[in-house]
Amino acid sequence: MIKDMTEGSPLRHIIWFSIPLLIGNIFQQLYNVADIVIVGRTLGMKALAAVGAISPIFFFVMFIVIGLTSGFAVITGQRFGAKDTQGVRRSVTVSTVLSTGITVFCSIVLAIFMNQALTWMNVPQEIRQDAFWYIQIVIAGLFIMNAYNLLSSIIRALGDSKTPLYFLIFASVLNVFLALLFILKFHWGVPGSAVAVVVSELVSVIMCAVYVKLKFPILHLRREDWAYALKKESLSFAYEHLKVGVPMAVQSSILGAGILIIQSVCNTFGSDVIAAFTAALRIEQIATMPMISFGIALAAYTAQNFGAYSFSRIREGVNKGSLINIALSIFMTLTIHFFGSDIVGLFIGRSETHIIEIARSYLWISTLFYFFLGQIFIFRNALQGMGEAMMPLWSSIAELLVRSFAAVYLAVKFGYFGIFYAGPIAWISAAVILAAGYYINLFGIVKKAHANFRLQKKLKKEFNLSV
């Protein structure tokens, strides 16, 4: 169902929009959690380490796809907020053409340089073969990943966060079933887990596409919409999408690069540390899902209100979103601190006490800084919803540099324990930059709007014009 968020309570819109999005994100994380639990419990710690050692490449690619499609959907949301139906359809076709071309290019490059990437990441030889085949299968399904994220981003941009949820729940359950089938019944090992991810995501793509065809008249694309996307006259509109989408993709890839660097350093400490770090990161991804969901909801809310020139509603949404973030940060911190060891034990088994202790140490440190991580999602998504992509990009570059330096330097000084502080230090740096960028950007927009209003009044008074 399409939802107009330019009227009514901002907090109510954000909360009700984010709840199904949160559930959907949690189920989407089950793709990765299923890998860890099933592989770790059935194939052992070395297999778990293989998945964990190569996972940052998967996340690197996924972040690019999500950033690109989310950026394109910002333009779609702005056109919807401006009540431009034709603009919505043309935004969809232009987004499809652009994202398809970029996905094909990325797939080819990654396939060619994958062996070299494994060497750069210091993947141990004993787990290298499993890691190689896992990531190659995932890369082969990159087009499917792009299709799902593009469809879901467009649907969310129109205010509907529920539609993809039901399909995602089904696909997540299917992923667990297929992973067990391919690993236990077909004995495909670690590659079987990757095949399960790709096949289940393909199912969610098909279901989303069918639903859009049946239930979303505004997204019923015409021949002239596709023709427009391939003509020279669409170049300026394509550039408008790329101006938001590419910086968001680059920004997301920079975040992925930071994880790659940390994982590369972590890989030098052996399979036990890799397995512990892998389990801890998966738990953290689930713990921070509410923050991410509120951020995505705020991006859709901001895009619509920016298109409607409702700047005061944007400010109100950000302020109330920040209050929600404080509550979420405290809740998640307390949960991890009191139940962290038990949760880690569910992933890898309670007998692996040394690995559990390493993972718990990481979680105890990182949770103390969740507030700053939550504010990153708040300010970054608000800026992106207003079409401002450069400040989030600069913050991501700063986050990458700080995270990389901290990981390498602290690892040398304190061993793998020092790596655990790299993320929190980077979160603080990025949050400060984004907060400054948000307030400066919003102030400039409001000031420009007031100036234009005064100019319009002057023209109307002096020349009796309707402007």
Model description:
Helix content is 86%, strand content 0%. It has helices at 10-43, 45-81, 85-120, 125-140, 142-157, 163-185, 190-215, 223-229, 235-266, 271-287, 289-307, 311-348, 353-366, 370-385, 390-414, 416-419, 422-463. By secondary structure, it is mainly alpha-helical. It is globular and about 65 Å long. The longest helix has 42 residues, at 422-463. The two termini are 35 Å apart. The chain has one domain (10-463). The model has no long low-confidence stretch (mean pLDDT 82). Helix 6 (163-185) packs antiparallel against helix 7.
Write the layout of secondary structure elements.
Layout: H1 10-43, H2 45-81, H3 85-120, H4 125-140, H5 142-157, H6 163-185, H7 190-215, H8 223-229, H9 235-266, H10 271-287, H11 289-307, H12 311-348, H13 353-366, H14 370-385, H15 390-414, H16 416-419, H17 422-463
Helix pairs in contact: 1-2, 1-6, 1-7, 1-10, 1-11, 1-12, 2-3, 2-4, 2-5, 2-9, 2-10, 2-11, 3-4, 3-5, 3-8, 3-9, 4-7, 5-7, 6-7, 9-15, 10-12, 10-13, 11-12, 11-14, 12-13, 12-14, 14-17, 15-17
Briefly characterize the structure:
It is built from 17 helices and no strands.
